[in-house]
Amino acid sequence: MRSTDPLRRARIFRGAAVADFPQPDAIAALNQPTLILAWTGDAGHPMATAERLAELMPHATLHAASTLAQLQQWT
Asked: Confidence class of residue 36 from pLDDT cuts 50, 70 and 90?
């Protein structure tokens, strides 16, 4: 974590702090294209959560980063 960009890290933490997921049927009703970015080493946001969101959303694409180099490719 220390080697990631501090601004990017702060944005991630702020988003996580205010996230409160709606019911699964409400998530499944979302029809817009959605990009889900997940980090395999993030204990606070397990891959299972990202995978479940991708499963529920009809037009979701899931990208998982396993290395710092992959994470740094995200904008």
From this structure: very high
Q: How confident is the model at residue 1 (pLDDT cuts 50, 70, 90)?
A: low
The whole-angstrom separation of Cα 65 and Cα 25 is 27
Residues 30, 57 contacting (CB under 8 angstroms):
yes
Q: What phi and psi values does residue 5 have, to the nearest 5 degrees? A: -65, 125
Between CA 72 and CA 75 the distance in angstroms is 8
Exposed / middle / buried, residue 30 (Cβ in 10 Å: 0-12, 13-18, 19+): middle
Strand partners, 34: 60
